[in-house]
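Need the bound structure for adenosine monophosphate, inputs here:
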Amino acid sequence: MHVIVCVKQIPDPALPGELDPATNTLKREGKLILDESDGYGVEMALQLVTAAGGGEVSLVSMAPNDEVSGLRTALAMGAAKAVLVSDPALSGADALTTAKVLGAATKKLDDADLILAGTESSDGYTGTVPEQLAEVLGLPSVTFAKTVEVADGALKVDRQTEAGYDEVSCPLPAVVSVTAGVVEPRYPSFKGIMAAKSKPVETVTLGDLGIDAVSWAQQIVSVDDAPEREAGEVIEDDGEAFGKIVEFLDNLKVI
Amino acid sequence: MGIDNIWVFAQAANGEPTTGTLELITKARELGATVTAFLGGDAGPIAGALGEHGAAKVYATGDLGGSLPGVAVAAAMQAVIDGGDSPDLIMFPQSYEGRDVMSRLSVKLDRTVLTNSTEVAVDGDSVTVTTPVFGGTKLVNSTFSGERPFLAAFRPKSFAAEPSGGGAAEVADAPVPDLGAAGAAAVTAVHVEETTGPKLDEAAVVVSGGRGLGEATNFEMIETLASLLKGAPGATRAIVDAGWVPYSLQVGQTGKVVKPTVYVAAGISGATQHMVGMKGSKNIIAINKDAEAPIFGVADLGIVGDVHKVLPKLIEALQSRG
Ligand SMILES: Cc1cc2nc3c(=O)[nH]c(=O)nc-3n(C[C@H](O)[C@H](O)[C@H](O)COP(=O)(O)OP(=O)(O)OC[C@H]3O[C@@H](n4cnc5c(N)ncnc54)[C@H](O)[C@@H]3O)c2cc1C
Ligand SMILES: Nc1ncnc2c1ncn2[C@@H]1O[C@H](COP(=O)(O)O)[C@@H](O)[C@H]1O
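Answer from helper R.:
Posting the output first, comments after.
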């Protein structure tokens, strides 16, 4: 079984985000790490390949620079190889362009039985790329998967809904987006980290994918500061602070 | 030209339009456009409520027969658009279904999508949407260029749902065309999680717990307190992912957006992704043992203390009031 996982590389979310003053788009320079949301997809793919009795996990990623640190993390977890689309023209690309580019990148690899993605990225969180990718490739899709099993060439997925979950069946090949917490991503072993250094990462430009030009029909016109919520009273609990809460609720007439 | 014709992707649950749907229909009406709802399912039971909020017409696909809405409704929308009724703007709720339909349609029509928006303004031919970023501290205003329809998704509770007193919406059929391979996923069973008490996104009081509770069994304190206050329990993603409570309790960017009269955050740090789901609450009470926790930055009453000490006493005090 061949599973392709879409992995986004993002600036460390622990660092404060910044907007590029010239373009008002999110700054995505320097070191990028594997988006935590995609660690679940990588783990799920590795488990499905093991359960299938063999195969390979490949990665596709799009980034405005040549960074591969995030890809190396996923390779160290056990993925076999990666295709990175890196082109300055992709800086500030919208979700639709991202999906088209990722779709073209999958063609650089052997045909996939399954393509996995996260439900939403940590820094962009449009939550649209996986379903757009499915449409670009003309494939069926199941979004918001909580569990994924493959049996007899078809998927059985428990799909998160607002009210509970649906059981969904879907033939392969297909695109599936997985929710956070579906599986526990493994920590790369020392051996895995060493092995990842020599695994193949093919870096390609838009031209290499046969895409001449990209554009998107949206412009950021301005950025405002949001009105701030004032912090109120903060008190240290001396054993009686619960009384303050009762009083507060009383004043609001909720008790 | 102007923005005269707006579609709203409509959703229904238990024979009623969802609140998110009515919020968007109300907003579309306020923008001065002719409003059409587009529903994956049968419009009969909800045409009245949709009309009352301002929809003149509702396109309905009829029963989807187990197809996932994303691909099916998008194909039905495309068929209507190709048939000549093309809107200027399509508004989607930022819900699971909304996102999926919008995504499929964006590729079919080759249109960009603007997501996670909380405001929309129309000026002549131009549409500007506002999206909070960095945990809601900055507001990014973006406009569409290129061809219509423009596609935008809005976070729940961005607008208030208000009836305008209109009559039932006219119902028009919008059948799902043959979907081919892309439509091969099928729902085989539906599971609804049992809930009691008020719904999380409608309750006047929400009591949420986070990782600071220490372990799953301590969530009982949150449930007890919520029920004493006739409210609903909520949770952070940290404890949903840890399997302590079901996802339906999650508050935040990937969970529910709540705007209760009182929000109690117990053992919650106040990560930006949690705060975007609860910052709109009228009053916020936070209990956290770390005085530096970001949640105190938005709390009206902050208690620096241990949830294992404060919550039991609070529960006892409320119980004794009867
Ligand atoms: C793409 C993306 C989407 C996300 N969506 C969501 C979302 O929708 N909702 C959400 O909630 N999160 C979301 N998150 C996760 C979010 O970033 C945080 O990880 C999460 O909210 C933290 O939960 P927490 O506050 O329970 O845990 P922690 O951050 O671990 O905080 C626990 C707090 O408890 C306090 N504490 C510990 N012991 C005690 C005690 N005895 N008494 C009192 N206080 C104590 C600690 O001081 C600490 O502040 C998302 C993350 C990403 C990347
Ligand atoms: N630039 C990218 N490179 C690789 N995968 C991506 C990229 N952007 C989005 N994705 C995939 O799509 C998912 C949802 O992202 P988003 O639509 O941005 O919320 C992510 O979790 C990734 O799996």
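Comments: Residues A 36-37, 120, 122, 125; B 210-212, 236-239, 250-255, 267-269, 271, 273-274, 277, 287-290, 293, 306-308 surround flavin-adenine dinucleotide (ligand 1) (CB under 6 Å). Chain B has a mean pLDDT of 95.
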